[in-house]
Amino acid sequence: MTRNEKREIIIKVLYETIMLEKANTNYNLEDLISELTEEKDEFISETLKNILSNKDKIIEVSNKYLKDKWEFSRLAVPDQAIIMLGVYELLYTDTPNKVAIDEAIELSKKYSNDDIPKVINGILDSVLHNEEKINE
Predict the structure, then answer these.
(1) What is the pTM of this model?
(2) I need a surface site. Which of 10, 54, 95, 113 has the fewest CB within 10 A?
């Protein structure tokens, strides 16, 4: 499985977690992952656990760079998932910045409307140039 395919699984699971949390429904992260892939994959599991444990900080950073008084919570859920992954990769991982941003833009082209790739690019570019890496 390619890293791109793994990122798709990550945003799909993030989507599910956001929806389940909105519905006040408990979930098991490993069960959500296994619904999408039978392979045990450390990259997917660890990335999801780290995103969810740093979710508040990721959303706080994202909100700083949303334009026109938009808030993270007002974005479509797929867009929230993609931004969470992109911000996480920029701030918390050694993923090359260009890769993290390009992957998020490609995912948004596949799962969002036509305007969103520009929005996501703007947010992630601002995060890249204005935020310090966070050591876990």
Answers:
(1) 0.94
(2) 113
Query: What is the spatial distance between Cα 79 and Cα 68, in angstroms, rounded to a whole number?
Result: 17
- Is-contact 136 50, C-beta < 8 A? yes
Q: Rounded distance, CA 117 to CA 38, Å?
A: 30
CA 125, 61, 66: angle at the middle one, nearest 5? 65
Q: Which two tokens stand for residue 55?
A: 């979710």
- Give, in words, the CATH class of 3-130: mainly alpha
Token reading at 100: 């993290």
- How confident is the model at residue 136, as a pLDDT? 56
DSSP character string of the chain: --HHHHHHHHHHHHHHHHHHHHTT----HHHHHHHH-SS--HHHHHHHHHHHHTHHHHHHHHHHT-STT--GGGS-HHHHHHHHHHHHHHHHS-S-HHHHHHHHHHHHHHHS-TTHHHHHHHHHHHHHHH------
- Amino acid found at 79: D
